[in-house]
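Summary for the funding panel

The consortium committed to producing paired sequence-structure records for every protein in the target list. Below we show the first two records in order, beginning with the earlier of the two.
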Amino acid sequence: MNQSRRSVLQGVLGAGAAGLLVGGAAPLPATRPRVVSKGTGLGLRWLGVAGWELSFAGRSVLFDPYLSRMPYAGADGGLDPALPLRLDADLVEHVAERELSGAPELILISHGHFDHLADVPQLLSRPGWSGERVRTLCDTTSRHLLGAMGTPAHRMADVVAVSGGDHLQFDGYSVEVFRSLHSRQQDYTSFAPGTRDAVPARPRTLGDLVEGQTLAFQVSVEGGPSVLLTGTSNVAERELAGARPDVAVIGMSGYAAVHGYPDRLLAALGAPALLLPCHHDDMVTPLRDSGITGTVSSDAVTALTQAVERQGRGDTTRVLAPRHLELLDVMGGAAG
């Protein structure tokens, strides 16, 4: 393991991180939310479903910040695209005001589905962030959907359509964009597929927020760790050739119809020091509900841990089960 990844793992073990390391490590005590603002440290806060906040050097980046947790299941228990969008504006505002580190300078959107994009227009419209510039990176479909949902014009000017292969430089960090794939349902279909080449009518149902092109992102802090962010449970592993993140956030919703996942993903990434499952809670229990921890699937952690063991990487890679809204401190280090 190179020096950067060793520093990441040692930082997790020594920082009193929220969550639980598995694969032989002892439980770690919870920490109070705070901003990592100095040095090359990185704070990671799970927002539920596929959402994360990354905080470093006094700034923050959001990934798939879905907070409304609206009903999605039909009579058969599966995703029902005909259900109405029921955004929880009060909860979104509560989390933005009380739990996040402040106005993000960047929002990353993996694809257009409701549980990834639906709350971004409200976040971009917050009066409390009106004096801050917030850029958004997404595919073209997601950009059109944001416009259809009433995102303010001055914010839309900072919504940039990207595609796999883009590698953008920001102040103190870079963002690499990878083409990715959406997970498959048990009958091998995908939920709400489709693209939008122009701004459509205002979305009213879950199915109106179509997938578009699914993307993954790698955020690399200069002098610090790199984090791969995936929002779905599928992988185009050849697109990830050469990516060697220190931390990999791995979508772990249903993937039975996807061959060899997560083993193919781990093989493509090498040996990240830290694996963080996401998209493995029930998606509907409110973030302020004391019982939300009980909605997390332990099978997701087990599946990742077993994949690590099958590939003989137990000495270099650890799996951590994150807790909603609690901060994980990751220490950076120069690559060696």
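The next record, for a separate protein in the list, is shown here:
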Amino acid sequence: MKIISSIFFLIISITAYSQGNVYKQQATKWEGLAMTPPMGWNSWNTFETKIDEELVKQTADIMVSTGMKDAGYTYIVLDDGWMTKERDANGNLVPDPEKFPGGMKALVDYVHSKGLKFGLYNCAGTKTCAGYPGTRGFEYQDARFYASLGIDFLKYDWCNTEGINAKEAYTTMSNALKTAGKPILFSLCEWGDNQPWEWGEPVGNMWRISGDIYPCFDCEYKHPENWSSWGFMKIIDMRKGIRKYSGPDHWNDFDMLEVGNGMTYNEDKAHFSMWCMVASPLIAGNDFRSMSKETLAILTNKEMIAINQDKLGIQGFRHSDENKLEVWAKPLENGDWVITFLNRSEEKKQIDFDWQKHNIKDEINNIETKFNTVTYAVKDIWNKKQLASTKKAFKAAIAPHEVIVLKLTKNK
């Protein structure tokens, strides 16, 4: 009996201890900071770690003077390379005094004085992707530092994270930002490796769905270090079935824009149009100081931006694909739609689209065009032309890598 009693006591003891280990970390992000896809500028695509306070000030000034701020671009985000290579004796991050001699807080205040918002970068791992101090083990300390600077946006990368659980790592940082007490938009840059769309909504305001973008239409750029960057259409094609996870305050992020970074005019226009169609954050990545009038016109096309910023927040979808001529659709508020024709081929195509033969339906949101019973006014957004209604077939020639974006307004 003593043996049985001892075994019984041991079982009860083990059960009691195991029952004590039931705490589950719950994410508590700052809600309501991104009810439409965030818009702004990030330093990485053009400058990588070659950043300084003069670049930031010039970028802020240009965002205001060119009308980009008025068009909706709000955030200036410094990516990797803003800090020194080591933390200080107390474990604090140190903004590089050579790059930012006036201090980071003064720079944040300058950006705020222009009516803009300021963002910084770090990483969930022990080191950032460029080898600067990562946040692993310093989440709450770093969050308090960001709050003391008054920043508004944190991009959080995924390098040097061996052995870390992605959901838990990002949840920890999300909670640290909330605890620090300053509303900071949390941008998860985990590259889609751990399906952040499935768990990201309570954790962050946006999450990357792919590795880094590259300024090309449909290529894969293989880096010597054995990783790849992707043309914007490669990213569009990369994930299947994720549009249902995107919406107000929880966006699928297709990465920063490469508009103005070396592609053709048609490709830049297609790139920007597709980011608007899929409701991706619009984070410019070019050098504003040398920006052409054509690039500025693309980035500030207010009717395209309105498509991206539509309050329904529905990610668009591919309706059809015939011989590399794709038709994309996106429902808007008030019963309106956007239809985009995209020529992925290397030759000119002819469009002959009879609206009456195409009932376009968003199966996830149960919204459909009903062209047989509903008539829409049609406007060509890029050419700024009012066209015939959907009672008449749409016919046009479309060049290689070009888009034609049509706004369909429901007749009252």
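Regarding this second record: The chain has twelve helices and 20 strands. Residues 317-410 form a domain with the Immunoglobulin-like fold (CATH 2.60.40.1180).
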